[in-house]
Amino acid sequence: MKRKLILIFTILTFISCGNENDDIYKTKSGEFASKSGNFIAAFPIKPGYTAIDNQIGLDKFQIHMFRTSLGTNKVFSIEYNDYPEYMIKSMTDEQIYSQGVTNFANKMADSFRLEFQEPIEQNGLNGVHFVFGLKKHLVDKGVKGYIAGKLFRNGNRVYTVSYIGENDKHTDSFMESFRLIK
Q: Given 18, 71, 115, 153, which residue has the most CB atoms within 10 angstroms?
């Protein structure tokens, strides 16, 4: 199981190296922004960018990922999806957030368990904040880490802001800094 967790962190680190993208720039405040993603966040170092093709039924869209890591056990990430308009309009914000947290829980079910989720408001955006803790069998083996995440919806775009890893001094500032470019 520890190997599986290390593999997850390694894959996330590899993905975080992503493609170079001039869409990502450093702001005067020292944070990083994405023109196409329309957001600003306090990544600890410049994130890499990766786009993955996705499909639901006949609808194709991309998952846009901005990631950086501080070693193999500290991954800072912002992802967004632009869902087809008819699909996103058929769901309430609460349904979107609930489904997003459930999808996250299903992906990480072998290693993590949902500890809590709560509605939040951050920089003018309503969303949900959630935290996953390691399962007991991994804690008993000395593995450290957790997942902190936030989901926000803006029109047909859904943002996921997350941190996966051990405690890090940059986590709170990263998580709390996410906002849209006005």
A: 153
- DSSP string of 7-56? HHHHHHHHHHH-B--TTEEE-TTS-EEETTTTEEE--SSPPEEEEEEEEE
Across the range 11-26, mean pLDDT stands at 58
Contacts of 139 (CB under 8 A, 6+ apart): none
Q: Helix, strand or coil for residue 68?
A: strand
| pTM (predicted TM-score) | 0.85
Task: Say how far apart CA 132 and CA 109 lie, in whole Å.
Answer: 10
The residue among 62, 54, 25, 50 whose CA lies nearest residue 40 is 25
102 pLDDT above the threshold of 90: yes
With tokens 């869902």, the residue in question is: 83
- State the chain's mean pLDDT as an integer: 87
Q: Is the pLDDT of residue 98 over 90?
A: yes
Q: What angle do CA 71, 77, 79 make, to 5 degrees?
A: 150
